[in-house]
C-alpha cells in the first residue's frame, strides 16, 4: 500500500510539470500588455514598464521564465500577482468558497444521483425508471449555463427562495445550495445513469441470485451485496469529474457572481495576470491528481479483491 | 463434401440455426430494430442537412437585422420571432446548425483518430513506450477540458476580421487538444484486453506484421467502446463550444451559432424568453440525438445488456 502510494506520487511529478508547462506556455501567449491601463489615462513611464517586466521576468525566453517560476513554486512561493498581492493569500480565501461549492456539488451528486439511479435500477422498466431516464437525458442535453441562468431567474429572482447572487466570501451554506446544484446538475444525471446501468447488470449476477435464494430481503440483497459492487465505477466517475467541476466552476461562479477560484482565473485571464492564472491552475491540477489517487485507494475499500500491494 | 454441407445448411435454415455473424453484423441487426436508433439518426440527418444546405429550410438572410423590429414575438412573418438585433431567429437557428455540427463532428473525429492512434500504440507495444505515452496522456488529462479551452481561447482570441473558417477551426483544435486523452485511455485498455487472445498469438506465430495484427485483429475487436464514447462526446463538444461562446471567447459574431445566440439571449431572459428558447431547443435536441445514438450503439455492441 505504502509502496503503491509512493509510486503514484512519483508518477505525478512529470504530469504536474508537463501540465503546468502547457498552461504556462498558453498564459505566456496571452495577448496584450499587462502594464496597459495600470497608470490611468496616460501610458506608463518606460522606467516603470522596465521595472515591472524585470520584476516578473517578462524579458526572459519562455523556458527560463518557466524554470524561475518553478524554482519558486517548489519552495511554496506562488508568486505575487501583478497587483503586488501574494497569490497564496488570494487563493487561500478563494479556495475555501470554491471548495465548499465543489463539495456541496459532490454531495448532491452522491445523494441525489445514487438514489435516483438505485430507484430506477431496482424498478427497471417501470414508471420511475422511465422518469429518471428521461429527466437525466433532459439535463444532459441542456448546457449547464442555460440551466444555471434559468434556475437563477426562477428560484432567485421570480420566487426569491434562494439569493440570486452570492458575492460574499463568507457566504452561508444556504445561499450556496442553488449554485452547487447547478454546478453538479450534469454530474447528478451522469451518476444516476451510471448507477442504474451497473445496478441492473449486477442484479443479474449469480451471487445476487444466491443471496436472494438464501432468503435475504430484497433490500439487503440490493443494499449490501449489489450496491457496493455497483458503486465502483460511480466512485471513479465522481473522482474524475472533480476536475470538470473545478472547470465548470468558472461558468457557475460567473453566473452567480461568486468570488471563487473560477472567478479568480477568469479575472486573471482578462487582466493578463499570468502568475495568478498559472499558480491557481497548478494548484487545481495537483488537487485533481490527489483526488484521483484517493479514488484509486478507495477501490480497495469498496472491493477487497483489488489490492494495491 | 463441403459443398453438400453448405447446400444443406444454407437455404432458409440460416435464420433458425443462426448463421456465423460477426459482432458488427450482430450489432447492426439489433440496431435495425431499435426505434431510438432511428429517431436519433433522423434527427442527426436533419441537423446535418441544415448544416450543409440551410437555404433549404429558410429563404431569409440570417445576417439581415431589422433594428425597428427587435425582440418581436413569434408571428407568421418571423416564425420564431426576432432577437435583440432584429435578426430573424428562425433563420439564425437554422444557419447556426452549421457551426455546432462542424465543431462536434470535426472535434470528435480528431479525438478519435489521435486518441485511438496513441491508445493503440501504447497498448500494443507496451514497455517504456507505453509508459511515455501514458504520461503524456495523463498530462493532457489533468487539464479539464473547459479550463484548457478557456485558457487557449483567451490566449489566441479571434480578431474582428477572423474568417469563419479560422474561428471554427480554432475551437475544433482546442477541443481536440484537451479531448483526446479520454479516448486514448479507453483505447489502450481495450487493446490490452484484446491482445492476450489466442487469435492474436496465432497471427503473431504465423508471422503477421505488427501493422497487420493491429489492422485486422486488434482494431475490429477494440474499436467499439471508443466509437461509442466518441459519439457521446460529439454532444459534449457541442455543449463545450456553446459554453465557450457563452463566455464570449468561443465562436464570436459575425459567426452564427447556437452558442452565440444563447449567450446573446441570456441577458433578456426575464422579458423575452422566446429569444432564448429556440436556439436552446435546437442545441439540446442535437446533443440529445448524439447521446441517444451513442447509447443505442453501445447497447448493440454490448451483449451483456440484452
Written account of the structure:
The complex is a heterodimer of chains A (about 300) and B (about 300). By secondary structure, chain A is mostly helical. Chain A has helices at about 1-30, 45-55, 60-75, 85-120, 125-140, 145-160, 175-205, 205-215, 220-255, 260-270, 275-300. In chain A, helix 1 packs antiparallel against helix 11. Chain B is mainly alpha-helical and about 300 residues long. Chain B has helices at about 1-10, 15, 25-30, 35-50, 90-125, 125-140, 145-155, 165-195, 200-205, 210-245, 260-265, 275-300. In chain B, helix 10 runs antiparallel to helix 12. The longest helix of chain B is centred in the middle third of the chain and has 37 residues, at about 90-125. In chain B, about 45% of the residues are buried. Chains A and B meet through helix 1, helix 5, helix 6, helix 9 and helix 10 of A and helix 6, helix 7, helix 10 and helix 12 of B. Chain A: It comes from Knoellia subterranea KCTC 19937. Chain A: InterPro entries: BPD_transp_1_N (IPR045621), MetI-like (IPR000515), MetI-like_sf (IPR035906). Chain A: Keywords: Cell membrane, Membrane, Transmembrane, Transmembrane helix, Transport.
Features:
heterodimer, A: 309 residues, mainly alpha, MetI-like fold, 11 helices, B: 306 residues, elongated, disordered N terminus
Please identify, by name, the CATH architecture of the domain at 96-306 in chain A.
Answer: Orthogonal Bundle
Shape, per Cα inertia axes of chain A: flat
Determine the CATH superfamily of the domain at 96-306 in chain A: MetI-like
Our estimate of the beta-strand percent of chain A is under 5%
**What's the CATH first level of chain B?**
Mainly Alpha
Instruction: From the 3D structure, determine the CATH topology of chain B.
Output: MetI-like fold
Rg on CA atoms of chain A, Å: 24 Å
Distance between the termini of chain A: 5 Å
> How many domains of chain B, as an integer?
1
Query: pLDDT average of chain A, as an integer?
Result: 83
* Sheet with most strands of chain A: none
CATH class (first level) name of the domain at 96-306 in chain A: Mainly Alpha
Unreliable stretches of chain A (pLDDT < 50, length at least 5) are none
The oligomeric state of the chains shown is heterodimer
What is the H/E string of chain B?
HHHHHHHHHHHH
Largest sheet of chain B: none
Radius of gyration of chain B in whole Å, from Cα? 24 Å
Proportion of beta-strand residues of chain B: under 5%
**Overall body shape of chain B:** elongated
Amino acid at each position: 500500500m505504502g509502496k503503491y502510494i509512493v509510486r503514484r506520487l512519483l508518477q505525478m511529478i512529470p504530469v504536474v510539470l508537463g501540465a503546468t508547462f502547457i498552461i504556462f506556455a498558453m498564459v505566456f501567449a496571452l495577448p496584450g500588455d499587462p502594464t496597459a491601463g495600470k497608470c490611468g489615462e496616460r501610458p506608463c513611464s518606460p522606467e516603470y514598464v522596465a521595472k515591472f517586466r524585470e520584476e516578473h521576468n517578462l524579458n526572459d525566453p519562455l523556458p527560463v521564465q518557466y524554470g524561475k517560476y518553478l524554482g519558486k513554486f517548489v519552495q511554496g512561493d506562488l508568486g505575487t500577482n501583478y497587483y503586488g498581492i501574494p497569490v497564496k493569500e488570494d487563493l487561500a480565501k478563494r479556495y475555501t468558497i470554491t471548495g465548499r461549492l465543489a463539495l456541496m456539488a459532490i454531495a448532491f451528486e452522491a445523494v441525489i444521483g445514487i438514489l435516483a439511479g438505485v430507484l430506477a435500477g431496482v424498478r427497471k422498466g417501470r414508471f420511475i425508471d422511465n422518469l429518471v431516464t428521461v429527466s437525466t437525458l433532459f439535463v444532459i442535453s441542456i448546457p449547464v449555463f442555460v440551466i444555471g441562468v434559468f434556475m437563477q431567474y426562477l428560484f432567485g429572482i421570480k420566487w426569491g427562495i434562494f439569493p440570486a447572487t452570492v458575492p460574499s466570501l463568507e457566504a452561508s451554506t444556504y445561499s450556496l445550495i442553488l449554485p452547487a446544484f447547478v454546478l453538479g446538475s450534469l454530474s447528478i444525471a451522469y451518476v444516476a445513469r451510471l448507477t442504474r446501468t451497473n445496478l441492473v447488470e449486477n442484479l443479474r449476477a449469480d451471487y445476487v441470485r444466491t443471496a436472494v435464494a438464501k432468503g435475504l430481503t430484497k433490500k439487503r440483497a440490493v443494499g449490501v451485496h449489489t450496491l457496493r459492487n455497483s458503486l465502483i465505477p460511480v466512485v471513479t466517475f465522481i473522482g474524475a469529474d472533480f476536475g470538470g467541476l473545478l472547470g465548470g466552476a468558472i461558468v457557475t461562479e460567473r453566473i452567480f457572481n461568486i468570488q471563487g477560484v473560477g472567478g479568480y482565473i477568469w479575472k486573471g485571464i482578462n487582466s493578463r495576470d499570468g502568475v495568478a492564472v498559472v499558480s491557481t491552475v497548478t494548484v487545481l491540477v495537483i488537487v485533481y491528481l490527489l483526488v484521483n489517487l484517493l479514488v484509486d485507494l478507495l477501490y480497495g475499500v469498496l472491493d477487497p479483491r483489488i489490492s494495491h500491494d | 463434401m463441403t459443398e453438400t454441407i453448405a447446400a444443406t445448411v444454407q437455404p432458409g435454415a440460416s435464420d433458425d440455426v443462426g448463421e456465423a455473424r460477426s459482432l458488427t453484423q450482430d450489432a447492426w441487426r439489433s440496431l435495425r430494430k431499435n426505434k431510438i436508433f432511428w429517431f436519433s439518426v433522423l434527427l442527426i440527418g436533419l441537423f446535418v442537412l441544415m448544416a450543409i444546405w440551410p437555404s433549404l429550410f429558410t429563404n431569409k438572410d440570417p445576417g439581415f437585422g431589422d433594428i425597428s423590429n427587435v425582440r418581436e414575438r413569434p408571428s407568421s412573418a418571423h416564425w420564431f420571432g426576432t432577437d435583440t438585433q432584429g435578426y430573424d431567429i428562425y433563420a439564425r437557428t437554422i444557419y447556426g446548425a452549421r457551426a455546432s455540427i462542424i465543431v462536434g463532428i470535426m472535434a470528435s473525429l480528431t479525438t478519435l483518430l489521435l486518441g485511438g492512434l496513441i491508445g493503440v500504440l501504447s497498448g500494443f507495444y507496451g514497455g517504456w513506450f507505453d509508459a511515455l505515452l501514458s504520461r503524456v496522456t495523463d498530462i493532457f488529462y489533468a487539464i479539464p477540458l473547459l479550463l484548457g479551452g478557456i485558457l487557449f481561447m483567451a490566449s489566441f482570441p479571434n480578431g474582428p476580421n477572423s474568417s469563419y473558417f479560422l474561428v471554427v477551426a480554432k475551437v475544433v483544435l482546442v477541443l481536440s487538444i484537451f479531448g483526446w486523452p479520454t479516448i486514448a485511455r479507453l483505447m489502450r485498455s481495450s487493446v490490452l484486453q484484446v491482445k492476450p487472445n489466442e487469435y492474436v498469438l496465432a497471427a503473431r506465430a504465423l508471422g503477421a506484421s505488427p501493422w497487420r495484427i493491429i489492422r485486422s485483429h486488434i482494431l475490429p475487436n477494440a474499436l467499439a467502446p471508443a466509437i461509442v464514447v466518441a459519439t457521446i462526446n460529439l454532444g459534449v463538444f457541442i455543449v463545450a463550444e456553446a459554453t465557450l461562446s457563452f463566455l464570449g471567447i468561443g465562436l464570436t459574431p459575425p459567426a452564427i451559432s447556437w452558442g452565440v445566440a444563447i449567450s446573446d439571449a441570456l441577458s433578456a431572459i426575464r422579458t423575452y424568453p422566446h429569444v432564448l428558447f429556440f436556439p436552446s431547443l435546437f442545441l439540446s435536441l442535437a446533443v440529445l440525438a448524439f447521446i441517444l445514438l451513442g447509447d443505442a450503439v453501445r447497447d448493440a455492441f454490448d451483449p451483456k445488456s440484452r
